[in-house]
Amino acid sequence: MEPPSISNSVYSLNNLQRQTEQLSPQELKEFVLQDSIGTRRPSVLEKESETCQCCTLKPKGRAYKNVIGAGVSFTLTFSALIALISLQSSLNEAEGLGYGHLIVYNVVFIVFGLFMSSVINFLGTKYSIILAYFFSLAYAVANFYPQWYTLVPAAVCGGLADSIMHAGNSIHVTNMAIKYAPALNEKTDHLIAFYNGIITMFFKLSYIPGNLATTAILFSERTSAGKDIIDTSLEPICNNTDAANLDQTYVYILMSSFVLINIAAIAIAFLFIDHPGTKPRRGSALKFYIKDPVVSTLKVFKDWKMCLLVLMMPLPAFLTVSILGIVLKFLISDCIGVHWVGLMTMGYGICSALSAVVTGRLFRYVPPFLMVYFFSAVMLGTTLFLLFWERRPSYLVPFLPLLILGLCEGMWFNIPPTLVGILFPKNKVPAFTVIRMSLGVGYTAGFAVPLLAPIAVSFWIANSLIVVSVVSYSILVFITHSREQLFPLCYRKKSN
């Protein structure tokens, strides 16, 4: 091959110069940024990294390692939060400290939702989840000395933890579903629904570890005081005062168990969750990590589909916080004793977990709108029963409605994240951020309403949210879903 002549080189240089002169200043800036991104070495956070590389895992094994690792760590961390939150109205009733600091908790949950995607963009899903677990650990430690000046700052940490871990885990398993669906020969929509169902199951299983510790330790406290676990001589009125007379030694043992649970969750997240990498930063850090995520989150609000999803998400949050809180405080703690709170909450969580994973898988066979209508009707009937039932001490009557509400809430909690994965595949982070913010609205209302209004108001709000959620779901699904998505089993038979 002949070497290039000087005339050809000059021609090429002049041609490049003319092309460059035709670019606008903004185009030149983008060209330089793209070139610098393409040539510079990626940062540690931008690189993907996998755990358990000493083991040869197939794609299915790698996918489930991430889903199960995220789920188990989520279960442990959130179990400590749920158990602490369930006990607040009983242990910290003085001056409204229990419900009061939880309002701060959920306000932080909502406000930080705007910036949550910035954290995930900067750290990636794995390290965002681990950061949330450290915040949860700080909240557990603060409960050793519950005062306004300790629990309010701790509530800020708890709100940050709650916001990050919910969205981080949902986004992580959705990414795993999208990444491994071709290798597993699964439809992406079905795998997203299934993996989100598994995460929702683990979220609901988080009612077990912390509440199991609560039940065991408070039962031990009661037997050490010479009292029977089941009081056969219940008075006809609800005036139980066990919560105010608990032995503080057992309370400290309980708080220590929550701290250990958080530490175990952090270790599991480090060992089993893969780091999927982060997007390369383009432009200034302020614009990439703060301005762009916040703007993208606000833009998602303009989408009519997201507006309908926002109307649906407060239902499971309000139901869990307000109705469950009312039953735990006024029908269990005040009527049959605080030592039953953990066991009753655990039963609610187990039913919710089973419902989440089963209904998430049933979407492959059963028309999803039929499940929504059935569970919503059952939920409405149960809340109306609790509304009109005359309060009196009973071991059976509060327990059965809790189990039924757990089954219904598990299905509803899984619906919005699944729809986000299907309807917003390119904007998952801001979309998950928005629905978690609406979840925070439901939590905040759930804590605030019992403080400001009679118990009946909470039940009527819950019933109204059920109706609004069903209507919103119907409009969204029947407009956006194809016949194959609405009737999956019919088309599945045809394809076979």
Automatic annotation (TrEMBL):
Checking InterPro entries in the record gives:
Ion_channel_UNC-93, MFS_trans_sf, UNC-93_regulatory
Under Gene3D superfamilies, the record lists: MFS general substrate transporter like domains (1.20.1250.20)
Q: Which residues form a coiled coil?
A: none
Record keywords: Ribonucleoprotein included? Answer: no
Q: How does it sit in the membrane?
A: Multi-pass membrane protein
Source organism, top-level taxon: Eukaryota
The record lists the membrane-crossing segments as 67-87, 99-120, 127-145, 250-273, 308-332, 338-358, 370-389, 395-413, 434-453, 459-479
Q: Chief location of this protein?
A: membrane
Record localization: Membrane
Q: Which UniProt keywords apply?
A: Membrane, Transmembrane, Transmembrane helix
**Gene Ontology terms, cellular component aspect?**
membrane
Q: Which family does it belong to?
A: Belongs to the unc-93 family.
What is the protein's name according to its record? Uncharacterized protein
Q: What is the lineage of its organism?
A: Eukaryota, Metazoa, Porifera, Demospongiae, Heteroscleromorpha
